[in-house]
Amino acid sequence: MLPMLYIIAFTVLAFLAMGNLIRSLMTLGSQEMQRPAYPQSRRPRQVPHPELLDESGNLIREPLLVMKSISVDEARDRLNALYSEGSELASQDDPRNEV
């Protein structure tokens, strides 16, 4: 009896969800039809994301992230040095930590 109750409950929920989806799509479609068409010249200017601008507000034209490819063995060596008991010594020998 309990499994049949679950099946009926989820079937009712599925029909409610589908009805809500169809109603939302129809509302969205009618709102899109009512929206006035703007000429191309009156379109608002798209503003770039703030992270793509420098301090003076100019658009950055250089790559924001540069990744260096390394071999698997080099990555293993770095991880072993990082997580080994002498990690303080390994991090002091790392040339990337030089100032």
Q: Helical percent range?
A: 40-55%
Q: Give the overall shape, derived from the CA principal axes.
A: flat
The N- and C-terminal alpha carbons lie at a distance of 73 Å
Total helix count? 3
Low-confidence spans: none
Number of strands: 0
Mean pLDDT: 82
Q: Give the ordered list of helices and strands.
A: HHH
Q: What characterizes the major β-sheet?
A: none
Question: What is this structure's SSE topology?
Answer:
Elements: H1 2-34, H2 72-83, H3 87-93
List descriptors.
mainly alpha, 99 residues
Fold and architecture overview:
- The protein has three helices and no strands.
- The protein is mainly α.
- It is flat, with a radius of gyration of 29 Å.
Provide a compact summary of the structure.
With 99 residues, the protein is an all-alpha fold.
